[in-house]
Amino acid sequence: MQSMIHGVCGGLALVCSLTAWAEFACGMSDGSVTDVGPEAGITSTGNQGFLFRGTDEILVNAGRAGIYKTVDRGQNWTRSEHGLLAAGGVEPLVQSLCQSPSAPEVVYAVTVSDGVSRTTSFGDSWEPPTPIPQGLWSCAVDSSDSAVIYVLAQVADELFPGRLFKSTDAGRSFSRVGAGLPEYGEFSFALAVAPANPLTVYVGLVSAASGGLYVSSDGGLTFEALSNSPGSPFAVYAHPSEGGTLFVLANSGSGLFLSTDGGASFEQIGAGLPGRPQYGLAFDPVDPSIVYTPASLDGLFRSVDGARTFARLEGLVGLGVNDVAVGPRNAVDPPVIYASTSLGPFRSDDGGSTFAPIHDGFRGLSVNDLAIDAAGRLVLATFNSLGVFGQLGRAFIKSSVIRFLLKSPHRSSQSPRRPTTLSSTWWPLAGVVQAVSSGPRTVAAPGRDR
Question: CB 3.0-4.6 Å disulfide test: which of 19, 89, 143, 355 passes with 315?
Fold first, then answer.
């Protein structure tokens, strides 16, 4: 069967057969084109994977699929990139988000190669990016001043100099800082500003030569190496309330390290974890001795003793958990936990005893390839997910490949102006995403009655 590929935009793919091309072209002309991809995919990790304004509003970054926002604790998601356009008039690839602790409505978006953008409305609209001629990785905002932001480049060399950049005017201009950091060669991923002392800034470098943790006590202007830090740190988290206490995720030893003296010494912690932690730690906002960390296919783990020991929370095993956050709460209600998985975000309202999917409208998949099968159905090869989606009951669904499927169908949204006929339902398979035009079905875990 002949097919026509119109375009791929990150996680969004618009494809139709020649018989549907006329309707699709009409939709293009009147501006009614809409997302039709499956509702799945992870949020891009960072020191702040889930951003909160109050208890109901959440902002996340899905990488190539864009920035998504919910105003009802994840029940419904919409893309939220109005005004976020690079110089060429296209949406840039956002690498990470960082939020101002003192003004939660202020969020910065760091793009891979188009600079830094800011929103003062928690993602409802964005300012044009301020260019920085570097490949950027992460950012952190001063804990007391929303106009002060630090941006870390992934790597610096002779062609693209500068590892750390700082703005004191809300991202309108940036200057190179970071004297004392290795100038070239090493990769850098870890960046944090101490909540208790915003002049204290940490940067971690991943390198066999000089990789390690560096600290600044003058707002990022100068740095010195912490000689006892673990090698190759890829994330650092300053304790929310205890000055001088920091946690480091590193590609050495057990993977999780603790310092209680500002980085002068470190000890390995994290007993009970299945291996080196994934990118992410989350502290309970009421009791920061309760710490959560994702462990990919092994699920989600919780500590009640300041990350020294962990136990697994059941319910997300096999889903590829890559990030976790705890929503704002009071001291009476149980914590609301949000987890990013390969099948989209999940939420627990009972402190982690149970989890439910909250992915309606969340299309966080990145599409790698497209095809039309013999029956005329669209097949998408994706990553940032289980990888394969398809109709329940096909011979190539194997429980050894897919360890868990949701009990509810994944439905694509329809344009309010012109309903689309390109696809109506997406089903998980084992390496692609397939659209089927049949009505809703119940998807059960492999091995259960269907």
Answer: 355
CA–CA separation, 250 and 257 (whole Å): 8
> Which DSSP symbol is given to 321?
B
> Cβ-count burial of 225 within 10 angstroms (0-12 exposed, 13-18 middle, 19+ buried)?
middle
Cross-strand bridge partners of residue 82: none
| Token representation of residue 65 | 């699929």
State in Å, rounded, how far the first CA of the chain is from the last one: 32
The residues pairing with 249 across neighbouring beta strands, listed in sequence order, are 235, 256
Whole-Å CA distances, 280 to 164, 176, 215, 295, 362 = 22, 28, 20, 9, 21
DSSP 141-194: E-SS-TT-EEEEESB--SSS--SEEEESSTTS--EEE-BTS--SS-EEEEEEE-
The reported pLDDT for the residue numbered 394 is 33
For residue 92 the two structure tokens come to 């840039």
Could you confirm whether domain 50-357 is CATH 2.40.40.20?
A: no
Assess whether pLDDT exceeds 50 at residue 440: no
Instruction: Give the Cα separation of 423 and 420 in Å (integer).
Output: 7
Q: Answer yes or no: are the C-beta atoms of 126 and 108 closer than 8 Å.
A: no
pLDDT at 403: 31
Measured CA to CA in angstroms, residue 92 lies from 67, 78, 129, 205, 366 at distances of: 11, 18, 9, 26, 14
Give 380's pLDDT tier (boundaries 50, 70, 90): low
Condensed to tens digits (0 to 9), the pLDDT of residues 16-73 reads 444 444 444 455 455 555 666 677 777 776 667 899 999 999 999 988 888 999 999 9
pLDDT score for 444? 31
Parse the chain into domains and list their residue ranges: 3-40+365-436, 50-357
Cα 13 versus chain centre, distance: 20
User: Rg (Cα) of the chain, in Å, rounded?
Assistant: 22
